[in-house]
Amino acid sequence: MNKFAAAAIAACLTAIAAAPSALAADSPVIIPDVEPVPEPPSIFYGGWYLRGDIGYKIYQNPEGGWFDPVAPGPLTFQNTSLADTGVIGGGIGYKFNSWFRTDLTADYEFKAGFHGEFPCLPACGASWEYAD
After folding, report:
1. Which one of 3, 80, 103, 124 is CB 3.0 to 4.6 Å from 116, fit for a cystine?
2. What is the mean pLDDT of each successive set of 10 residues along the chain, which is 132 residues long?
3. What radius of gyration do the chain's Cα atoms show?
4. What is the pLDDT of residue 103?
5. According to the model, what pLDDT value does residue 50 have?
6. CA-wise closest residue to 130 among 119, 121, 18, 122
């Protein structure tokens, strides 16, 4: 036999001998039991929390007026508009359980610009305008 044939036969015999080791991947995997790490105790006990709020108010056109005893009936603003504005707030609260909590908050609403016109009495013959 020549050297090539002998090497081929040796390679085939080695592959046949190694075939059972290929089945090792199909064997059941044994997972070791891992003991969970205990959670450290909480330093702060209770359901207290702080909260923060931020918002934006979108106003519709307002309606407003006043009563002047000299004028014949109530007077109302005309061509009114009220600008949108922002709101911020904060507070502290306590959570009793997953269904009940209570909190105390304080909010601040930024200034919103108002524009409106109101009629002057017929005696003055002019229209006045108010803008903030």
Report:
1. 80
2. 70 66 62 81 76 92 74 75 92 90 94 79 55 52
3. 42
4. 93
5. 93
6. 119
Asked if residue 130 lies in contact with residue 120, where contact means CB atoms within 8 angstroms, the answer is no
Residue type, 96: F
CA 102, CA 91: separation in Å to the nearest integer?
11
- Of 126, 115, 125, give the one whose Cα is nearest residue 77: 115
Q: Tell me how far apart the alpha carbons of residues 85 and 114 are, in angstroms, rounded to a whole number.
A: 11
> What type of residue is 101?
R
| Amino acid symbol at 38 | P
Tokens, residue 22: 């290929």
SS (H, E, C) the chain: CCHHHHHHHHHHHHHHHHHHHHHHHHCCCCCCCCCCCCCCCCCCCCCEEEEEEEEEECCCCCCCEEECCCCCCEEECEEEEECCEEEEEEEEEEECCCCCEEEEEEEEECCCCEEEEEECCCCCCCEEEEEC
| Whole-Å CA distances, 116 to 75, 78, 84, 111, 131 | 12, 6, 15, 16, 6
